[in-house]
Amino acid sequence: MSAAQDETKGARVVDVLAPVAVDVTYSYLAPPALGLEPGDSVKIPLGAREAYGVVWSVEKTPSPRSNLKTVTARLERPTLSQKLRDFIDWLARYTLTPRGMALRLATRAAEDAAPDAARLLYRATGSKPERLTPTRARVLEAAEGGMSFAKKALAEAAACSSGVIDALVDEGAIETIAAPPEPVAAALDPDFTAPVLEPAQQVAAEALTQAVHARAFKPFLLEGVTGSGKTEVYFEAIAAALKDGGQALVMMPEIALTAQFLERFAARFGEKPAEWHSGVSERKRARIWRGAATGELSVVAGARSALFLPFRHLRLIIVDEEHEGAYKQDDGASYHARDMAVVRARFEDAAIVLTSATPSIETRVNAERGRYGHLRLHARAGSRPMPILDPIDMRVEGPQRGRWIAPRLALAVGETIARGEQALLFLNRRGYAPLTLCRDCGHRFRCTQCDAWLVEHRFRRALVCHHCGHTERRPDTCPECGAEDALAACGPGVERLAEETATLFPDARILVLSSDFPGGAERLRRELDEIAKGAFDIVIGTQLVAKGHNFPLLTLVGVVDADLGLGSGDPRAAERTFQLLNQVTGRAGRGDKPGRALIQTFQPEHPVIAALLSGDAEKFYAQEIALRERAGLPPFGRLAALIVSGKDAATAEAHARALARAAHELPRSPRYRVAALGGLPDADEIMMLGPAEAPIGLIRGRFRYRLLVKAPRGADVQAFLRDLIAAAPKERGGVRVQIDVDPQNFM
DNA sequence: CTCAGTGACACT
DNA sequence: GTGTCACTGAGA
Predict the structure, then answer these.
(1) What is the 3-state secondary structure (H, E, C) of A322-390?
(2) For residue A730, which nucleotide's C1' is closest to its Cα?
């Protein structure tokens, strides 16, 4: 018997899933000594390189095959539980993502999880260095008493750089000792602070704690207006999970929101939870990943990707602000984190709580039909009253031409700031003006890449495409007719609104909050702090201001254009507008004094605006749900978006057309309809949904078109999509299809 | 004829 | 995802 045969004799065959864009597992020989079980991580040869993979199954009766490669080694990583592996398989199938890519979502953080490099501590040995400079003396003095310090701490204490310490180590005056790795997060105390709950909160909290203790899958919608105390309620559910020795995951839509949350959490549980988002260092994420797997970590608060952490005993998931669009992931695997969280909870036999002041339609329907428990907090905690809403009919009492603030709104702002209170003007449009045209020849500035109007950004002296990001300098003369000083800005953006506000209130301290201003989350946090301290009288903001930030001094909200977004042809336009305006107007009010919101609109009788003004959310939900049901829109019909991309607009469009053609040639139930949401004007086989408004975005250097597939409830839209992708023409390269399923009915 | 750039393809 | 290979067009 040869040595090679000897080696393979008795070897087992394992099926390994590698984190690559492949849907199948690969089989490898595994030395029995490794004792591999499903969920174990292994090092494997893959093509020309070494990769890692996760054992998905161990073949009981391996069929004889030649040419199998052999697992190189076992990786010291926590085992991925059966529950997590099932979830990965499910998600891959549901989102039409290769399973390897789904696996990668769950293991990417572990790629950096080198076993913790020993942290080095420094302490004095007692021996003196050859040359004792004043700086060195300071270091030795600081290190006196046998205490050991982190290098950085010691350097800081001695006010020197770490180089000095290195030199002292070389000369033997300082020694290094290995320290145990720092714990990822401190232990949490479920009884650190006794909760103070109002009766309605108490009822909801009890329902949740019961569900957590039951250790079974149970979804809830926790619905309550801004300030009704939803957080305190779900803190009790977290406390219940902790008392049972379980883990909890809190998902947040925005990084900017986490800071505030962490503070409140620490006040309730004594310590902050582990924080998980793209801003956290890779090294730290790797440790959180391990901490979740070992059970050492009990609560993680984070963004979408936290959903894939390998929790050991997950008892509870919270999805905060469940209606937020930020839960939708679009590049790579595309999934809706809120819905996938529900599925994860099902696999983990955990409770899950979706919270919102303005739930999404699908969640409301699920709650109303009894699939989710429905917990409601009607009043604001501490009896803070709801703001008073007041429409301004722009047809009757609008501002003069070229102005955007109606006299009555201006008056209200003036009174508010005269009382030393804050006013917020809300306009969901970045930049100075959404359209620039030439008064002489009528030329309109359009994006050369995707045909959308270019938005003027006056601060930057630029014209920017909000669709694809294309930017050009704003010229002084018309590029069409050469006329000078003939370019006119049409319509308002926040920058222009700031200009008008400054003219109306020259002495007011005005701040514009817009996501495109430089400085990022850091600056935003600082500015929000300053607002809370009263450093500004008038805040002008885009939808950024709707996202759950606290404005304690705000008493007046002016919605400058409530109609914006209602006519966009997006099937979710009504829902989005209602949510946005509700969140924004809900910011008004201080203490027990009701706030006031003035709403400028050209169509006060529009169902969405009317429902908003009536303050009756029930009315809105009832009418929107009825409408969706009639139109077969989600959640009553299934909508999937195929995102087709190409290296330039023309290629992308060609691919989109080819795919649409393939869709119509595919044998299928006539109940499927494939539509282009704008942008494919003469393709007669394509049903148009909404106006053509160039739905292309430039993402990572590629142009994207969006095609919609609509299928009624019960239809196997995934099977259709799978066939469609298979039938998609692959010639000339670059048909990349991403499926963005609006997932319904997956339970 | 070489070389960088682009895609298609396979990976057990 | 990533390494390899074939093919292309530009330049020596």
Answers:
(1) CCCHHHEECCCCCEEHHHHHHHHHHHHCCEEEEEECCCCHHHHHHHHCCCCEEEEECCCHHHCCCCEEE
(2) B8
Q: What are phi and psi of A463, to 5 degrees?
A: -110, 125
Question: Distance between CA A711 and CA A672 in Å, rounded?
Answer: 5
Instruction: Calculate the alpha carbon distances from A523 to A256, A512, A526, A653, A723 in Å.
Output: 10, 12, 5, 39, 48
Other CB atoms within 10 A of residue A409 CB: 24
For residue A599, the cross-strand partners are A391, A559
Top-level class of domain A199-377: alpha beta
Nearest to A467 by CA among A705, A737, A687: A705
Question: Is A465 annotated as ligand-binding?
Answer: yes
> Which strand (E) or helix (H) includes residue A739?
strand A736-741
The mean pLDDT value for A632-660 works out to 71
Nucleotide nearest to A104 (CA to C1'): C1
Instruction: Give the pLDDT confidence of A386-432 residue by residue, as tens digits.
Output: 889 999 999 999 999 989 999 999 999 999 999 999 999 999 999 99
Question: In the numeric block, which tokens belong to residue A557?
Answer: 């909200």
State the residue for tokens 């499926």.
A739
Helix, coil or strand: residue A15: strand
Taking the alpha carbons of A718, A334, A102, A644 in that order, is the dihedral positive or negative? Answer: positive
At residue A331, does pLDDT exceed 50?
yes
Question: Of all nucleotides in the shown strands, which has a C1' nearest the CA of A331?
Answer: C1
Cβ–Cβ < 8 Å for A612, A397: no
**Confidence at A118, pLDDT banded by 50, 70, 90:** low
Domain A385-429+493-627: state its class: alpha beta
In this prediction, residue A218 carries a pLDDT of 96
Cα–Cα distance for residue pair A635/A338, rounded to 1 Å: 14
Contact A646, A698 (CB under 8 A): no
Q: Does A160 appear as a known binding residue?
A: no
CA distance A73 to A42: 6
Question: Nearest-CA residue to the C1' of B12?
Answer: A26
> Are both A199-377 and A385-429+493-627 of the same fold?
yes
Name which of A591, A582, A504, A577 is nearest A540 in CA terms.
A504
Q: Which nucleotide's C1' atom has the smallest distance to the CA of A332? A: C1
Q: A732 pLDDT band (50/70/90 cuts)?
A: very low
Task: Name the nearest CA neighbour of A495 among A524, A469, A525, A462.
Answer: A462
**On chain B, which bases lie within 7 A of the protein's CB atoms?**
6-12
What is A637-741's CATH number?
A: 3.30.70.600
A478 annotated ligand-binding residue: yes
What angle do helix axes A230-243 and A255-269 make, rounded to 10 degrees? Answer: 60
Nucleotides of C under 7 A from a protein CB: 1-4
State if pTM tops 0.85.
yes
The DSSP result for A158-200, as a single string, is: TTS-HHHHHHHHHTTSEEEEEEPPPPSSPPP-TTSS-----HH
A652 has a pLDDT exceeding 70: no
Q: How many CA atoms does the CB half-sphere of A18 hold within 13 Å?
A: 16
Please, which pLDDT band fits residue A31 given cuts at 50, 70 and 90?
very high
Question: For the stretch A226-255, what's the b/e string if a residue is b when 16 or more beta carbons lie within 10 angstroms of its beta carbon?
Answer: bbbbbbbbbbbbbbbbbebebbbbbbbbbb
> ∠A632-A638-A639 over CA atoms, to 5°?
100
Q: Where are the domains of chain A?
A: 3-82+97-112, 119-179, 199-377, 385-429+493-627, 431-491, 637-741
* Strand B proximal to A647 Cβ, under 7 A: yes
Query: What is the model's pLDDT at position A733?
Result: 41
A646 CA from B9 C1′ (Å): 19
A33 contacts: CB under 8 Å, gap ≥ 6: none
How many residues can be counted in chain A? 747
| Cα angle A94, A95, A100; round to 5 | 100
For the domain A3-82+97-112, what is the CATH code? 3.40.1440
